């Protein structure tokens, strides 16, 4: 049988530099082909070449055939008739893919009318139907909204609605969940499955996330440096990979279902936080800039961290994780609640005490490029905290070689500038800078989220080694629960600015009690096709609510899966009484332990429905 889509001998060059080399791929009707690899492997270039969407500085050679018809080199007029009709694209960034000055419904209706002879009214009605299909609430109202009025998850849903508007034969999905929270990612993947099942389309799914591919793909192709190095069924590639690179890639992925023994919390307290709150004003535009509201960014966070321990703070975007971290760096009296650092209470510190605590607490930022001054050589960057603490230039310079060597960098490269290093090396520079003043506590703000999986594994290993060698305590902010599972000893789960569950990582992950924690854990994909497809998924409703509102009772109840199981009196309690959080445990009126990680005896994946 002739493949629906066939790429043969595909080469892509950018300004004469090869990016894709001799790629051979096939895609059959109703099939999902996962294309995986690290940044720069050529995944996205391959997908864009299939639809003739490469930028002007790119040259593609070889063959791309749709149902036997050659697309590569075809006239633009012929390609326009195919794009959106027979092959549709779900882009990585839906905000830039939508036109900001046109309403969402009008843009979807335009995609319908571009390929179908229907009236404006019928196209508009079809747009509403499609928004409803992908799970956007109040579709007639939302169809009249502009792209900036949608959340990231809703924009991606709308992008999928536009892609399936003409029931295409092939869906090309290029990193469709990259910038989304894990709970929203689970929703989008569910929408993609629904879209594929509804249209019967084949799908080429491009992703760096091996867990996403494990749950979605029938077959997998692994790319490295422009080459496809391995292909096979998902079970073959994940279960018995042939290529060393594939094995290395899978081994580097932090797994949610891999137990580790946390360090015993025997050291003295380093950080104690009770009821921390922080608000920000919302102001109107114009000259007067009047205050029109309040953002309750942190609204009741509790933390306990001991020496030699790693405490992770997890939650969705906007939950208050990073705000909490930066409030701790202020060393000032909190807006609400109490903070004690090394036994000293914020609000009572003298200038000398603040200066001493700043030495004992350092931070490693999320974006290693943005956190390093591009005009300074890395030697000066690493020495800067020492100079700020009063060390003379010669003393600071003498410390630099040892610090660079400690984090695995060549001391001879101290005269180089940040742009001359890779992303992983830049993060090592940031760690060396933080270590320069011999701190006792490191605040880690998403320290590996911007790194490829293999580099991520190396940096996590480095952080673990440094913690053991130097006796450090870590406060880790992360949205990646797989990373948390592999590095943290304890975890604190935050929802809408408030701590809702905390405890040792092995206990919380194995027996989560709060329904929000259960949903977070269930949404994290496992890089194992058999176990991933056998798991019970808990999908939350909608996006997190706005932190500009005050909520009576449990603020999670509008998205809580347990609400349907509760009686009327129990639901009233959730609506009017705030659940209390005390120590380890869950801030839930009706906590119930649920298994969300699956089990080793999972059944084989279910056969996929055809078109």
Index terms:
seven-stranded mixed beta sheet; 22 helices; six-stranded mixed beta sheet; 611 residues; globular; single chain; disordered C terminus; alpha/beta; 21 strands; 35% helix
Summarize it.
The chain has 611 residues and is an alpha/beta fold. Helix content is 35%, strand content 23%.
Q: Can you characterise this structure?
A:
The protein has about 600 residues and is α/β, with parallel strands linked by helices. The longest helix is centred in the N-terminal third of the chain and has 18 residues, at about 180-200. The two termini are about 15 Å apart. It is about 35% helix and about 25% strand. The strands form four sheets. It has a seven-stranded mixed beta sheet with strand order 16-17-18-13-19-20-21, sandwiched between helices. Strands 6-7-8-3-9-10 form a six-stranded mixed beta sheet, sandwiched between helices. A four-stranded antiparallel beta sheet has the order 2-1-4-5, with helices on one face.
């Amino acid at each position: 049988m002739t493949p629906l889509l066939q790429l043969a001998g595909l080469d892509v060059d950018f300004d004469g530099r090869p990016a894709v080399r001799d790629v051979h791929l096939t895609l059959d009707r109703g099939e999902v082909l996962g294309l995986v690899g690290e940044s720069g492997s050529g995944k996205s270039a391959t997908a864009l070449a299939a639809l003739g969407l490469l930028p002007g500085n790119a040259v593609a050679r070889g063959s791309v055939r749709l149902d036997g018809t050659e697309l590569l080199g075809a006239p633009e007029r012929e390609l326009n008739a195919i794009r959106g009709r027979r092959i549709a694209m779900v882009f990585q960034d839906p905000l830039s893919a939508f036109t900001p000055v046109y309403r969402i419904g009008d843009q979807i209706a335009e995609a319908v009318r571009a390929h179908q002879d229907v009236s404006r009214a019928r196209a508009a009605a079809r747009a509403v139907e499609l928004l409803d299909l992908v799970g956007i609430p109040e579709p007639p109202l939302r169809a009249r909204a502009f792209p900036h009025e949608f959340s990231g998850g809703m924009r991606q849903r709308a992008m999928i609605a536009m892609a399936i508007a003409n029931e295409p034969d092939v869906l090309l999905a290029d990193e469709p969940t990259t910038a989304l929270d894990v709970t929203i990612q689970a929703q989008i993947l569910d929408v993609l499955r629904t879209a594929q099942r509804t249209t019967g389309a084949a799908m080429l799914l491009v992703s760096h996330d091996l867990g996403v591919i494990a749950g979605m793909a029938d077959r997998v192709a692994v790319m490295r440096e422009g080459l496809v190095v391995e292909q096979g069924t998902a079970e073959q590639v994940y279960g018995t990979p042939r290529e060393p690179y594939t094995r290395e890639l899978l081994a580097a992925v932090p797994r949610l279902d891999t137990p580790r023994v946390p360090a015993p919390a025997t050291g003295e307290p380093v950080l104690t936080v009770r009821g921390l709150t922080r608000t920000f004003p919302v102001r109107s535009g114009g000259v007067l800039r009047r205050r029109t509201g309040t953002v309750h960014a942190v609204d009741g966070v509790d933390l306990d961290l001991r020496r030699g321990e790693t405490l992770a703070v997890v939650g969705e975007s906007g939950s208050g994780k990073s705000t909490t971290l930066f409030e701790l760096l202020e060393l000032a009296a909190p807006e609400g609640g109490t903070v004690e650092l090394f036994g000293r209470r914020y609000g009572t510190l003298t200038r000398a005490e603040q200066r001493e605590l700043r030495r004992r607490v350092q931070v490693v930022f999320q974006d290693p490029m943005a956190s390093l001054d591009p005009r300074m050589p890395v030697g000066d960057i690493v020495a800067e905290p020492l100079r700020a603490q009063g060390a003379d230039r010669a003393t600071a310079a003498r410390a630099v070689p040892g610090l660079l060597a400690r984090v695995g960098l060549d001391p001879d490269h101290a005269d180089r500038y940040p742009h001359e290093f890779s992303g992983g090396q830049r993060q090592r520079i940031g760690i060396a800078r933080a270590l320069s003043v011999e701190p006792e506590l490191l605040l880690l703000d998403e320290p590996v989220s911007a790194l490829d999986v293999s580099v991520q594994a190396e940096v996590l290993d480095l952080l673990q080694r440094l913690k053991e060698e130097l006796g450090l305590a870590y406060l880790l902010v992360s949205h990646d629960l797989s990373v948390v599972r592999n590095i943290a000893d304890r975890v604190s789960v935050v929802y809408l600015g408030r701590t809702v569950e905390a405890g040792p990582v092995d206990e919380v992950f194995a027996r989560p009690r709060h329904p929000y924690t259960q949903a977070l854990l269930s949404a994290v994909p496992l890089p194992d096709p058999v176990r991933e497809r056998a798991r019970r998924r808990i999908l939350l409703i909608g996006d997190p609510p706005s932190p500009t509102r005050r909520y009576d009772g449990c603020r999670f109840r509008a998205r809580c899966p347990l609400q349907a199981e509760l009686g009327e009196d129990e639901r009233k309690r959730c609506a009017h009484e705030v659940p209390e959080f005390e120590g380890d445990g869950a801030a839930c009126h009706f906590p119930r332990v649920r298994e969300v990680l699956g089990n080793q005896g999972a059944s084989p994946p279910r056969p996929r429905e055809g078109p």
